[in-house]
Design a protein that fits this description.
By secondary structure, this protein is α+β, with helices and mostly antiparallel strands. 38% of the residues lie in helices and 20% in strands.
């Protein structure tokens, strides 16, 4: 039984991070397979639920479903590849709960999951030692980024990329973005080298620059302590922006574009599991073809 949690406004509460295993190529590959299991289940489940006529009735051309079937096939191939590489060390698929209720919400969630996946592989890259593992991860990351770009631009009619650089998402931050879709996992699955962080919510997931947004987090009171300062960390490409938090609120900085990841940290050091206070959440800053990014 998990301890009861309360939805608290952020008033200087920070979670005590317990010790986790050091990063290893094996542990990171197991996390990659955990992610691929989730993606494969998501796409296969959605496509088994929604037919071509469901897509066309929702306003999408019939070929859109065909492309989603190709994405599902790609994710199944990623699962098979990682299972073969890991052998007896491969974690099994979990039980999932995805919050979509029609074709449109399925597509919106697909864009979110694919973007997270591409960023997760990039975040793993800096911790991998074996160049063959790194090469395989980069190959998968490129495919995930292409798939995310296709969904965002061709299907949702927004930007095909977020900027000049994809956003590397640190492993524990990536885990925080997907674990709420996981209901349970087999007890035989290995422990992953990740910190389990409190869930963060933002009052507006499509805010404007200069807007004040409210941040709330689910914390276990028995595992919290006070800290003197907290910052909102905005991950956008290779840039990290920090804004102060006052009375549960922070101001959205200028210069963000596309899919951005927002979390709470205890310092302005490079965002990583040593200074994470909360998990991360997705914030969107769509832009049209007239937008120009500063160099």
């Amino acid at each position: 039984m998990f301890p009861k949690t309360l939805l608290l406004a952020l008033v200087g509460a920070v979670t005590t991070v317990t010790a986790v295993p050091a990063f290893s190529d094996l542990g990171l590959m197991q996390f990659a397979l955990t992610l691929e299991h989730l993606e494969s289940s998501f796409f296969s489940g959605g496509l088994s639920k929604y037919s071509t006529s469901d897509f066309t009735n929702a306003g999408y051309p019939s070929w859109v479903r065909g492309r989603f079937q190709q994405i599902a096939d790609n994710e199944a191939a990623h699962v098979a590849f990682l299972q073969e590489e890991l052998g007896s060390n491969a974690p099994a698929a979990c039980t999932y709960d995805f919050p979509y209720h029609d074709v449109k919400s399925f597509i919106n969630l697909a864009q979110k999951i694919e973007s997270i996946s591409a960023g997760a592989y990039l975040g793993l890259a800096r911790h991998i030692n074996d160049t063959s593992v790194l090469n395989a991860g980069a190959s998968i990351a490129a495919t995930e980024a292409r798939q995310a770009g296709w969904i965002t631009s061709t299907v949702l009619k927004n930007q095909p990329w977020d900027g000049a650089f994809e956003t590397p998402i640190p492993p524990s931050a990536a885990w925080s973005l997907i674990r709420n879709y996981i209901s349970s996992c087999p007890d035989s699955n290995p422990d992953l080298p990740l910190v389990t962080l409190p869930s963060l919510k933002v009052s507006d997931t499509t805010p404007k620059p200069g807007q004040n947004v409210t941040l709330t987090v689910t914390l276990d009171k028995s595992k919290s302590k006070k800290t003197t300062a907290l910052y909102a960390a905005w991950l956008d490409g290779l840039n990290y922006m920090y804004t102060d938090i006052n009375n549960d609120k922070t101001t959205v900085p200028h210069g963000l574009s596309g899919t951005v990841y927002l979390g709470i940290v205890s310092s302005k050091d490079h965002p990583d599991r040593d200074n994470f206070v909360t998990g991360f959440t997705v914030v969107q800053f769509p832009f049209d073809s007239s937008a120009r990014h500063q160099v």
